[in-house]
Amino acid sequence: MATTEQSHTDLAGRPVTVRPVESVAPTATVRHVDQLETAALEEFLALLGGDRPVPAAETSLSVGDVIVFTDYYRVSSA
Asked: Whole-model pTM?
């Protein structure tokens, strides 16, 4: 099963990461960093800084989403 097809439950025990991407599919869910709720913003920044892994069950970020910050970053499972 492809990462973007896995459900949140399937990923519950796996850490989530963010990776820069060069292109974004027209069908991708894209959110600007300013649109994130406070908790999601803190999770994104922690992932971006590599401060700590965030288990999928503990994040409001969805695998496959793209976050626009200084670049485009795709949320993926590790």
From this structure: 0.72
